[in-house]
Design brief:
10 helices; 350 residues; globular; 2 domains; 40% helix; Ribosomal Protein S5, domain 2
């Protein structure tokens, strides 16, 4: 295994980890300041950092590549953007960025909808602040990471991914209000597993497809002013002038209601209701938000047929992963049945 010392000739001064995340429910609701219910994974990204004589240098063990980062250069359309972007945002916020060496190690699949980019952003910022001895809250780090994604990388994401990987607690779902950033941790009841399964189809989301959907929600917000979109009933979608915008709005408003119900179901350990709401969420994402694919739909169907109480696509869609709610005692035969039915699928986390 390659070490920081192997690459840079000195031991790392700090080591920081940020997990990936899976979203149980609340897909795209963060774009309207709504509620979400993500959970951190055990897999994630580790960034080690140490001082350098000059410049900023980043090495990825996955890419086996060392890159010199110039914070004045802007986006380069490769993995190091998710290192450079957070550093640029930290510098704009008043942090002096010292010469340093950074090494990135990951056991998260990229482009699978489990927030590998957010994990890299958050781990980079945690390493920066640890190396420079600065005390920053996990929420502050999440906000800087989101700015990096929005302003540097050009993806107009909400705050969910960065908050989930920055403040999330293993074995708990993060009940997060994306408008106020108020949150609490809700424990997964004993005897239940959250399975994250890749459909075998690489996620095909482009920045344009994501931003298109955000633009539809922005258009609806403008049409419905002064009332905020989040406060509207799902029935308001019928009054919108553009049928496509109406479908997008119907998804996020119905998903917001489902997420609040699902959070309470998890608190009360009503796993049957939680599963039903996850199933409804997938149908809404498929029909109204139009971010599912045939591979995801088949995998969701197989997961339910094999005994999952609930299964839905997770993340932005267009390929990538599903999340399934499965009794712990049934996990092994469940996965055998699912993988037999969908041989291209593989387990990210069971």
């Amino acid at each position: 295994m390659t070490s920081h010392e192997d690459v840079f000739g000195q031991e790392a001064a700090v080591t920081c980890f940020a997990p990936g995340r899976v979203n149980l429910i609340g897909e795209y609701t963060d774009l309207i300041g709504g509620n979400v219910l993500p959970m951190p994974l055990t897999k994630g990204i580790t960034v080690t950092a140490g001082p350098a004589a000059s410049g900023i240098h980043a090495f990825s063990t996955a890419e086996e590549a060392k890159i010199d980062i110039n914070l004045q250069d802007g986006k380069k359309d490769h993995w190091a953007d998710y290192v450079a972007g957070p550093l640029v945002m930290a510098e704009k916020a008043g942090t002096t960025i010292p010469p340093m060496n950074l090494m990135v190690e990951s056991d998260l699949p990229a482009g699978a909808g489990v927030s590998s980019s957010a994990a890299l952003e958050v781990a980079t910022l945690k390493a920066l602040f640890a190396l420079t001895g600065q005390d920053r809250s996990d929420t502050d780090i999440a906000l800087l990471a989101q700015k990096a994604e929005n302003e540097f990388c050009g993806v107009k994401c909400g705050i969910m991914d960065q908050m989930a990987v920055s403040v999330g607690d293993q074995g708990h779902a993060l009940a997060l209000n994306c408008e106020t950033l108020e949150w609490d941790q809700v424990a997964l009841p004993a005897g239940w597993s959250i399975a994250v399964i890749h459909c075998g189809e690489a996620r095909q989301l482009t920045d344009g497809a994501y931003n298109e959907r955000r633009a539809a929600l922005d258009a609806a917000s403008e049409e419905l002013r002064p009332q905020p979109l989040k406060s509207q009933s799902v029935e308001i979608a019928k009054k919108l002038s553009d049928p496509l915008v109406a479908r997008r709005v119907r998804h996020v408003l119905s998903e917001q209601a489902r997420t609040l119900r699902a959070t309470e179901a998890l608190r009360k350990a009503d796993m049957s209701l939680l599963g039903d709401l996850m199933n409804e969420s997938h149908e809404s994402l498929r029909a109204d938000f139009e971010v599912s694919t045939g591979s995801l739909d088949r995998l969701v169907a197989a997961a339910r047929e094999a005994g999952a109480l609930g299964a839905r696509l997770t993340g932005a869609g267009f390929g990538g992963c599903i999340v399934a709610l499965v009794a712990e005692s049934e996990l092994e035969p469940w996965w055998h049945a699912v993988s037999t039915e969908c041989p291209a699928a593989w387990a990210v986390e069971l």
